[in-house]
Write a structure and sequence with these properties.
two-stranded antiparallel ribbon; transmembrane helix; D-Maltodextrin-Binding Protein, domain 2; five-stranded mixed sheet; transmembrane; about 375 residues; elongated; 3 domains; Helix Hairpins; alpha/beta; 15 helices; about 50% helix; Ionotropic receptor; receptor
């Protein structure tokens, strides 16, 4: 087994009192440089490096957003496959199809004397989308063609709904959260009242790098709260508190249950910074170095070396994306079901009263 010894040299560049051109050149490998390997996060601007050098301090700097993972998708999981506009279009299709079927049933009633009812046609159109179609009594060809076309269309919509619903339920996109997740889930950013922040938009935008600009729209709408109100908002609503982690965790433990604290998610401000390895042109072990880095990545060593030991408020079980169905997840369908049964009972009572007064078939022998 051959062992190769590398002579490691740390290059310290004085970033203070340097021009912009000198700062830019200091970040890039030089042609005749004696240093073999550069390790620098190249997405950080030189303005940040001025006040955060050496660069290792940024990765140990524990500051960012503290939030509670929002699982509201499971509250109305049955509505997730379609947007509101699609659901509105489906309702309009059912109403229009019901009027069309009723018009065709009137035509059959005139020609063949069959029964016609708008309520029956409305139930038939609704049952087609649920793929539990009521018995059809179509005699004319026009009515049969209308039924067949609508049922095929409803079948395609139903297949898309079931497949998309399954993908939403088993999706693991919520397993990892970053700055983009704050924007996608529309979190409200909260700032503590005793913290200072540059409120001038132009000055603050210039200091934002590519990562922080993702949440700039949310930052412009931030709310300043006291510590107690801010922590309650994180637990009870979809809010993200911008603060450090170590200072807040003792307060979390005193005021909230362990299960609530374990649901908190940390998103570092510089969570999307990439790490690069740059070598000089005269480095004679380029291929060996590439192979070694790839093997370290495949075995998981590189991920382990770059992982920071985070301060944990308590021993929590590993977060999982499998949720148990609770009563609150089905409360809305149950309310709709009992409301429909109650309305059906009122209609039944009304029919009894009406037909008891006028005594017509089928309420009389």
């Amino acid at each position: 087994m051959s062992v190769t010894d590398f002579s490691i040299t740390y290059s310290t560049d004085k970033f203070f009192n340097m021009t912009a051109k000198e700062k830019s050149e200091a970040l890039l490998p030089r042609v005749n440089d004696t240093i073999d390997i550069y390790v620098k996060p190249m997405e950080l601007h030189t303005d940040i490096l001025d006040v955060a050098y050496p660069i290792e301090c940024i990765f140990l700097w524990r500051f960012g957003f503290v939030l509670r993972r929002y699982n509201g998708i499971h509250q109305r999981f049955y509505t997730q496959p379609f947007t509101s506009s699609v659901w509105t279009s489906i309702y309009i299709m059912i109403i229009l199809a019901s009027f069309t079927f009723y018009g065709l049933s009137l035509w059959d009633h005139r020609l063949f004397g069959v029964e016609c009812s708008f309520a029956h046609e409305l139930l038939l159109a609704f049952s087609a989308f649920c793929q539990h179609i009521l018995p059809l009594q179509a005699i004319s060809c026009s009515r049969r063609v209308a039924y067949l076309t609508f049922i095929l269309c409803a079948y395609v919509v139903h297949c898309f709904y079931t497949s998309n619903l399954l993908s939403h339920i088993v999706s693991d996109t919520d397993e990892y959260m970053d700055l983009q997740s704050i924007v996608d889930d529309n979190y409200q950013i909260i700032l503590l009242r005793d913290m200072n922040i540059i409120m001038d938009k132009q000055i603050y935008e210039r200091s934002l790098d590519e990562n922080l600009s993702i949440v700039w729209e949310q930052v412009k709408q931030l709310i300043v709260m006291d510590l107690e109100d801010a922590m309650k908002a994180v637990i009870n609503s979809r809010s993200a508190l911008l603060s450090d982690y170590v200072t807040l965790y003792p307060i979390w433990k005193r005021h909230f249950e362990p299960t609530e604290v374990c649901q908190l998610v940390e998103i570092d401000i510089y969570s999307n910074v990439k790490n690069y390895l740059f070598t000089s042109k005269n480095f004679s072990y380029k291929e060996e170095f590439k192979i070694g880095v790839l093997r370290a990545q495949e075995s998981g060593l590189s991920k382990k070396l770059l992982t920071i030991d985070k301060y944990s408020p308590m021993s929590c079980r590993q977060a999982t994306n499998h949720y148990k169905v609770q009563f609150e997840h089905t409360i809305i369908p149950i309310v709709i079901l009992f409301t429909a049964y109650f309305l059906a009972l009122l209609v039944l009572v009304g029919e009894k009263i009406h037909y008891a007064r006028y005594r017509v078939f089928p309420y009389v022998n």
